[in-house]
Amino acid sequence: MRGLLCSPLPMLLFLLQPWETQLQFAGPRCRSGPLDLVFVIDSSRSVRPFEFETMRQFLVGLLRGLDVGPDATRVGVIQYSSQVQSVFPLGAFSRREDMERAIRALVPLAQGTMTGLAIQYAMNVAFSVAEGARPPQARVPRIAVIVTDGRPQDRVAEVAAQARARGIEIYAVGVQRADVGSLRAMASPPLDEHVFLVESFDLIQEFGLQFQGRLCAIDLCTQGTHGCEHHCISSPGSYFCRCRAGFVLQQDQRSCRAIDHCSFGNHSCQHECVSTFAGPRCHCREGHDLLPDGKSCEARDLCNGVDHGCEFQCVSEGLSYRCLCPEGQQLQADGKSCNRCREGHVDLVLLVDGSKSVRPQNFELVKRFVNQIVDFLDVSPEGTRVGLVQFSSRVRTEFPLGRYGTAAEVKQAVLAVEYMERGTMTGLALRHMVEHSFSEAQGARPRALNVPRVGLVFTDGRSQDDISVWAARAKEEGIVMYAVGVGKAVEEELRQIASEPAELHVSYSPDFGTMTHLLENLRGSICPEEGIGPGTELRSPCECESLVEFQGRTLGALERLTQNLAQLTARLEDLENQLATQK
């Protein structure tokens, strides 16, 4: 049997040359004897229109290299999807032009992928004497070339073995999504000479290049390029022109043009389809990024992609961004910083959820968020003092109110905090804050100084213990409470923790990556509208000296108002006199 197959093999290898070359011969063809050749073409719905067009041109290119005739090579073509259709049988045409016309009129079936059914049809019908195949006693080699791009939806191994047993030599050509195991199950041995897999239909020609040099000994391309724009390829007794990948040969069979894959449609690209040598690619307009699906586009959020340096809030605006400050504060000359919270002084304790549900990467985002809060505070021993408590199944003071005297020290300490994991005992954390965190031993200033005490609870889920008692106790102790929830935080618990009105003291973000939008509300709320300045002596408002000072400031203000009222009355009288004169 191997002796019978030696003669058609060089011819078949010659057939498997690039379709884009549009074979053109300048001399006699390389003849290898009679051959019955059937192409079995996959036209299932997974083969997109421009890919099917590429396969069609591939067939036309192969035909131009055949020595077609009743006594030479007979060619048949069948296509398949969920059913099998004969494009033309082996005995239909003896002229290459008639075959090309039939191939160009081919309409894909665009259904399933019943490859086994197609092989059975080729074995029982396409290679039958009634369809034009020569009888077995003529000992004419029978060769089937199967071109497919997917996984068969039926069994192929058994029917392919039957076909090979009947003397049909099978070449399996897989493109792009083809299943290698199915290709090997169909092909004749040796598999390294009968199984081919290429990355795309545009590159279908590449599997034939390795067989160049086995066909004929004369290399006509050594005599010159023969006008080929890209490559001159020697063939049996002749030559042909071939284009580089991503190009197609023009009608003159010498010049090349780039394949415009997007001419077949935009391939579901949301913005633009761009044709490349490797095939169609989706491209997004400026200011947008391509999503992982390779088709959809998303407006680029520069605030998440660059180190913007905005002290308070970054707003992405197309191809640029700008920094914003909260209401009542102005952006400084550097375009990034805001005038800091200097109007008043606060003792601020942050309760941070370190439970297992937060996860390590999100805990790092929480620490960054805490440092953004610190950025708008005037941290100093006489100004704002900051303490941090982390809680999970237990409570741990990371640093008390009186430990650090500068914002830089606080931020460095925040970054050094290690993630606790485990449970969510928010009630226990509130108790710790009330009983310990705001004590003078921990660095809180005496109540007599009337420095506001603010607690900010940050959590991402439901508490595993009761919070009602200590949430109420905190507010009874005069602590202004804020609750920041993320993800699966429970709104009812957030409102229970926060001071009234809840709309001003409760903040929520659906995920950790978008927490920064909460800063504006927190900044406007935590910074007191009035307070003491740096270096001001802290005194109890109930002391006699304080009351006298307050009375003096009040009387002075009333005197100024009286003077302004007198000036306004005089001006009104002048206007009335002017009107009377005009009459």
Automatic annotation (TrEMBL):
<keyword id="KW-0245">EGF-like domain</keyword>
<dbReference type="InterPro" id="IPR000742">
    <property type="entry name" value="EGF"/>
</dbReference>
<dbReference type="GO" id="GO:0005576">
    <property type="term" value="C:extracellular region"/>
</dbReference>
<comment type="function">
    <text>Major component of the extracellular matrix of cartilage.</text>
</comment>
<keyword id="KW-0732">Signal</keyword>
<keyword id="KW-1015">Disulfide bond</keyword>
<protein>
    <recommendedName>
        <fullName>Matrilin-4</fullName>
    </recommendedName>
</protein>
<dbReference type="InterPro" id="IPR002035">
    <property type="entry name" value="VWF_A"/>
</dbReference>
<dbReference type="Pfam" id="PF10393">
    <property type="entry name" value="Matrilin_ccoil"/>
</dbReference>
<dbReference type="InterPro" id="IPR019466">
    <property type="entry name" value="Matrilin_CC_trimer"/>
</dbReference>
<feature type="domain" description="VWFA">
    <location>
        <begin position="36"/>
        <end position="215"/>
    </location>
</feature>
<dbReference type="Pfam" id="PF00092">
    <property type="entry name" value="VWA"/>
</dbReference>
<keyword id="KW-0175">Coiled coil</keyword>
<feature type="signal peptide">
    <location>
        <begin position="1"/>
        <end position="21"/>
    </location>
</feature>
<keyword id="KW-0964">Secreted</keyword>
<feature type="domain" description="VWFA">
    <location>
        <begin position="347"/>
        <end position="522"/>
    </location>
</feature>
<keyword id="KW-0325">Glycoprotein</keyword>
<dbReference type="Pfam" id="PF14670">
    <property type="entry name" value="FXa_inhibition"/>
</dbReference>
<comment type="subunit">
    <text>Interacts with COMP.</text>
</comment>
<dbReference type="InterPro" id="IPR050525">
    <property type="entry name" value="ECM_Assembly_Org"/>
</dbReference>
<dbReference type="InterPro" id="IPR001881">
    <property type="entry name" value="EGF-like_Ca-bd_dom"/>
</dbReference>
<dbReference type="InterPro" id="IPR036337">
    <property type="entry name" value="Matrilin_CC_sf"/>
</dbReference>
<dbReference type="GO" id="GO:0005509">
    <property type="term" value="F:calcium ion binding"/>
</dbReference>
<keyword id="KW-0677">Repeat</keyword>
<dbReference type="InterPro" id="IPR036465">
    <property type="entry name" value="vWFA_dom_sf"/>
</dbReference>
